[in-house]
Amino acid sequence: MILSAIAFYVFAAIIIASAVLVVSARNPVHSVFFLILAFFNAAGIFVLAGAEFLAMILVIVYVGAVAVLFMFVVMMLDINFVRLREGFLQYLPVGALVGIILLIELVFIVTTQVNVPEVLAISGAPTPNISEVTNTHALGRLIYTRYIYLFQAGGLILLVAMIGAIVLTLRERPGVRKQRISDQVGRSRSDSIEIKKVSPGNGI
Amino acid sequence: MANFWIDWLAPFLIIVAQILAVALPVAVSVAFVVYFERKVFAAMTLRRGPNVVGPWGVLQSFADFIKIFFKETIIPTGANKVVFLAAPVVTFILAFIAWAVVPFAPGWVIADINVGILYLFAVSSLGVYGIVMAGWASNSRYPFLGALRSAAQMVSYEVSMGFVIVTVLLVVGSLNLSDIVKAQETFWFALPLFPMFIIFFISALAETNRHPFDLPEAESELVAGYQVEYSAIAFVLFFLAEYANMILMSAMTAILFLGGWLPPFDIAPFTWVPGPIWFILKIVFLLFVFVWVRATFPRYRYDQLMRLGWKVFLPFSLLWVVLTAGVLVFFDLLPQG
Question: Which of A49, A183, B25, B214 lies 20 to 30 Å from A112 when distance is taken between CA atoms?
Fold first, then answer.
């Protein structure tokens, strides 16, 4: 018990510290590294809470794919570090406002759950006993039965976003020579080779 | 005080001993895998390969290691020092922590966790960070190009690998690696899921940056890709990690498709051989295929690599997921869990 408490505080402290460093690091690439560190420790907290499926998905999806693409883009940016800090005071009020609203909402959610216990009863399906099923099974049973429409709607939204991104960036460029594998495979001997008899001294 | 020993220290020491019992043989076997690769590659190109150090040259890798260990580690002045030195360490650690969940025989596993296959997938998808960090921190052109290629390549092939794993999970009904092996007692999954076996193995080649997909370090275009600026022990860490990753990917393929520690037939002469030996034999066979592919095929061009990943493997594996699920539901074969 005491070990998991220590582990929790270590993970939580590292998350908060690295989250602060994400916004305060001078170099954007370092920011991405700290973001990855924060993701990792969040996965650690999920494992402590017994949600090992969520922990692994967090690592696979966010660390293994999303953050890689982040880094891919950030590394290729041509960044002027001095220019980057210029607008700081200008954006501070907006950022602070958003942060404060989020904080108030978080406090609100936590306090209602503590003060008004009836909220918990209507908030969702009861959690199955962890000792009976693994949490992967438990999640699957809920997502694919009770929440199937919401789950599918979420998938559709992502699909639309993906198609939108493709539509926005796709442009026809004339004069680009692309390899057409089907054409290459479909070529036959008679299309590409012509054999001529050359009589000596005449040429073709 | 006695409680302290029994409750804390003894389990801790047992865990450390287990970790050493897995990590040390893997680290030593890397040396022999390098030797194995050089010998097989030499035989395929009608050469002799290493034959001077030790009997038949078996000690060649150790001689190489001792030599490179005494070289100077050079850090470029333009490099980002912390990230530059962290990159090989990250790669090396990631290559080894995955072994925590690999089962060598029934019960022979350090951590028999519920989501073992996801853990393996997560760790193998992190391998890209070592390369990207190395490429960026070197502050040099060739390493950077290698790192960018690597990032795109590994993310692309992970997608189809994920779908291959999903088909296996559909058949097994569990994410635990021991359960996956036990589910293959009647027949190995390489038989009913043969196309997925091939796709998984090719994706494993791309994921470990091996030939014919070794674009991050393509020596004819990028000198040595992300490894250009590395020397001495930092380079050794990359090298060890690459081969440890090869062994890991072979182990993963063996567990998912070739029945892990199970003998090919459950009859007398095959069951005499203990499970871990079967497992190692399967890993060695797959490593041989790794080398065989390297000796046989020319390197893919970058656009062809991307085409293969996104336009061939992804639709095909997606189709196979739907097909497998359909067959399982239609014949009422879904595992009950």
Answer: A49
Residues 6 or more apart whose CB falls under 8 angstroms from that of B265 comprise none
A162 touches chain B (CB under 8 A): no
Residue B48's Cβ-count burial label (10 Å; 0-12, 13-18, 19+) is: exposed
Whether the CB-CB separation of B92 and B230 falls below 8 Å is answered with: no
Return d(Cα B152, Cα B129) in angstroms, integer: 12
User: What's the pLDDT tens digit per position in A44-69?
Assistant: 888 888 788 888 888 888 888 888 88
Contact B145, B156 (CB under 8 A): no
- Model pLDDT for residues A128-145, shown as the tens digit of each residue: 666 667 777 778 878 888
Question: Of the candidates B203, B230, B190, which has an alpha carbon nearest to the alpha carbon of residue B89?
Answer: B230
Peptide bond into B269 cis (omega under 30): no
Structure tokens at B27: 């680290």
Angle B271-B272-B275 (CA atoms, 0-180°, nearest 5)?
65
Q: How far is CA A134 from CA A45, A96, A138, A151, B114, in A?
A: 17, 41, 6, 20, 7
Length of chain B (residues): 337
Distance CA A157, CA B3 (A): 55
Least confident of A75-84, A85-94, B246-255: A75-84
The Cα–Cα gap between B22 and A88 comes to: 51
The Cα A131–Cα B40 span in angstroms is 50
Q: What is the pLDDT of residue B159?
A: 86
CA distance B120 to chain A (A): 9
> String of b and e for B9-24 (b: at least 16 CB within 10 Å)?
eeeeeeeeeebeebbe
The predicted complex's ipTM stands at: 0.79
Q: Which residues are within 8 A (CB) of B241 and not within 5 positions of it... i.e. 6 or more apart?
A: B88, B91, B92, B94, B95, B130
Give the start-to-end residue ranges of the domains of chain B: 1-70, 74-330
Gap between the Cα atoms of A78 and A74, Å rounded: 9
A68 to B128: CB separation less than 8 angstroms, yes or no = yes
Tokens in use for A20? 């602060």
Q: Which of residues 20-59 of A touch B (CB under 8 A)?
A: 29, 33, 36, 52-53, 55-57, 59
d(CA B155, nearest CA chain A) in Å:
6
Question: Looking at residue A157, what is its pLDDT?
Answer: 96
| H helices present in B116-193, as ranges | 116-137, 141-172, 177-182
